[in-house]
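RECORD TYPE: protein structure
NAME: Uracil-DNA glycosylase
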Amino acid sequence: MTLELLQAQAKACTACRLAEGRTQVVFGEGNPDAQLMIVGE
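PREDICTED:
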């Protein structure tokens, strides 16, 4: 699975109630080959 496909699936996801009130999906940015990833809210 590519990051582009994963991002498209995240934007279209309605699998849980979070989708009802969200206004956007913030997928991320940066080097996809980075050795370190920081996840935040």
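COMMENT: The mean pLDDT is 89.
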